Amino acid sequence: MIVFTAEETGGDELTALGVTIVRGRKDAQGRLELESVMAHLAAKTRILVEGGPTLTAALLNQDWPIWCISIALPSFRARVAAVRSAC
Fold first, then answer.
1. Is residue 77 part of a domain?
2. How far is CA 84 from CA 6, 40, 43, 60, 65, in A?
3. pLDDT given at position 1
4. How many other C-beta atoms are found inside a 10 Å radius of the C-beta of residue 72?
5. Residue 13, domain member (yes or no)
6. Rg, the chain, Cα only
7. What is the distance between the alpha carbons of residues 55 and 29, in angstroms, rounded to a whole number?
8. What pLDDT is recorded for position 85?
9. pTM above 0.90, yes or no
10. pLDDT over 70 for what percent of the chain?
């Protein structure tokens, strides 16, 4: 299991249980910066993200290839329509 965090310390208990902790940078809002997380994961595997509106918006605002997006929220329909999809 991998846990991503923007915290500089902590997690010793998780590490002792075999969890890998990856420390990333914070974005302007103080959240974990997504680019470093996605780069780390993309180097290892394919990525499936099931997030709420904040995470989904953050991913859509990046200039990354997105192969398939399925969102049921009406507020995202116009945004998703603009994304090229290979689905």
1. yes
2. 31, 24, 23, 11, 9
3. 85
4. 6
5. yes
6. 15
7. 13
8. 44
9. no
10. 72
Residue 70 is part of which domain span? 2-81
pLDDT in tens, 26-58: 888 888 888 888 888 878 777 777 777 787 777
Q: How many domains is the chain partitioned into structurally?
A: 1
Q: How many CB atoms are closer than 10 A to CB 34?
A: 19
Does the pLDDT of residue 5 top 80, yes or no? Answer: yes
User: What does DSSP assign to residue 8?
Assistant: S
Residue type, 13: E
**Do the domain assignments include residue 23?**
yes
Contact (Cβ atoms closer than 8 angstroms) between residue 47 and residue 66: no
Place of tokens 């918006």: 57
In this prediction, residue 29 carries a pLDDT of 86
User: For residue 37, which amino acid is it?
Assistant: V
Asked whether residue 86 is domain-assigned, the answer is: no
